Give the backbone structure.
Amino acid sequence: MQQILMGLFRIMPLLFGLGFLAPLLAQTLERLHWTAPFGLSPIVFGLLVGGLWGAFATIKGRWL
Amino acid sequence: MKASVLSEAEIAALDARGLIRLEKSIAEGFMGGVPWGSVAWALANTTVWFALWPLTLSGWLPLWAAFPIATVSIALSYLPSHEAQHRIIARPGEPLFWLNELIGHISTLSLVLPYDVARLTHYEHHKHANHPELDPDISTHAAGTLDFLRRSLANRQPSGAADRAYGETLQRLGTPEAGRAMLVAAVYRLSYFGILFGLAWSGHALEAALVWWLPRHLAATYIQYYLSWAPHHPAQEIGRYRDTRAFRSPLGNILTMGMQFHIVHHLYPRIPLMRTPAAYWALRPVLKARGCELGGL
């Protein structure tokens, strides 16, 4: 149980990027009537940015 | 014996035993009774924050209005729980102990801080204030305001010190109660992320961000600054009369949430928050005689 929880918290930045930042970015773009670059849909753009940022935070241990 | 009937010279001439007797007799006058103001504060503030959800999700309250309300509400969430942590509302065995525990549990829901984690780690903070290894709040130690903000940001990174310090403190305690608190902390954290993810993927990411996620971060910064950094700065000394200070803030007593007088709380944790200013002024001559840092207050 403890190992599962520790594993889950270890990858939490990635999950946060995909689970929260991605839809947040997508819905922010839509609210501001902005378009995502390269013809991407807002949610694909959000998943790319949120996923990459979350992966960076998971590997590096920091968001910035 | 009252400090007000003794001159500063007479107080300074008291020996250690006389000083502590005088100090205790003054402090005892400010203890006891139920701090109903804190109880009402907790119930009203918790209600306000929970009410923001239906109000914003239904579109009745715009997010630009909900965001500052949520930030202030979460910033106000900690102190009623703090009263409960010290069992100021009621002690175990007293008829209103259930109310103490209720206030402790509900107050910090928005802060995602379980009551037992807060209580157990806070007791360790009192025992070991400013100790570089044993004080769970030492991660807020910083050279000044800008350094505090930099550290506060650093502490919240995935590898940051703040959460780790609380976990390590509970592990060091090693009691069944501390073990349960760690488990509850994990449930709280998973629930928090689960709710954020659920709201975000159901089309309410902006509501989740502006009613909870961002306000919580801003409120935590404010709480850590005024409740932890400011009263313990420069956090270099250890000891009953040296680990906490009084300070004068340009924001005054209310906007610093009573923390200008935090030295009184560390000396007598069972004095309710709303009585600490009066207790401070009554105790001031004794604190002065003890050589406490009173920051011009």
In short: The mean pLDDT of chain B is 95. DSSP finds 13 helices and no strands in chain B. Chain B touches chain A at residues 153-154, 157-159, 186, 189-190, 193, 196-197, 200-201, 203, 205-206, 208-209, 213 (CB under 8 Å). The CA atoms of residues 164 and 239 of chain B lie 25 Å apart.
